[in-house]
Amino acid sequence: MKTLKFRKKLSELILSGDKNTTWRLFDDKELSVGDEVLFIVWETGEEFLKVKIIDTRETTFGNLTANDWDGHEKFDSEKEMYETYSRYYKQEVDENSPVKVIKFELV
């Protein structure tokens, strides 16, 4: 089964129902609609949820839409968003960086 890792604070948002969208820079798992995916806490390796992918879309950070933001955690600024993703992926992220928007629901 395919897996995705989330920082603990994001896993809590998912479990509370506040987060049902994730953005990924590199889709090495080739996630697509209908895939069932196991979510794992990044810090502990603990499995915390099984979901089904209901929508995917490829774009750039600069072209994210209101729908792409729906169900995703918010940032105080674009700078904070780019810094966060640069830290996650250990490379520079800006408005031209490609991103895959993935929406999911509980199985």
Task: Offer a quick outline of the entry.
With 107 residues, the protein is an alpha+beta fold. The chain contains 3 helices and 5 strands, in the order E-H-E-E-E-H-H-E. The protein has helices at 8-16, 66-69, 78-89, and strands spanning 2-6, 21-24, 36-41, 47-60, 98-106.
Alpha-beta classification = alpha+beta
Helix content: 10-25%
Strand content: 35-45%
The number of distinct structural domains comes to 1
Which strand order do you get reading across the main beta sheet?
1-3-4-5-2
Question: What's the total count of β strands?
Answer: 5
N-to-C order of helices and strands: EHEEEHHE
Q: Which fold name corresponds to the CATH topology?
A: Sulfate adenylyltransferase
Q: pLDDT average, as an integer?
A: 96
CATH superfamily: Sulfate adenylyltransferase
Q: What is the global morphology? A: globular
Rg result: 13 Å
**Main pleated-sheet profile:** 5 strands, mixed
What's the tally of helices?
Answer: 3
Architecture blueprint of SSEs:
Elements lengths: L1 E5 L1 H9 L4 E4 L11 E6 L5 E14 L5 H4 L8 H12 L8 E9 L1
Parallel strand pairs: 1-3
Antiparallel strand pairs: 2-5, 3-4, 4-5
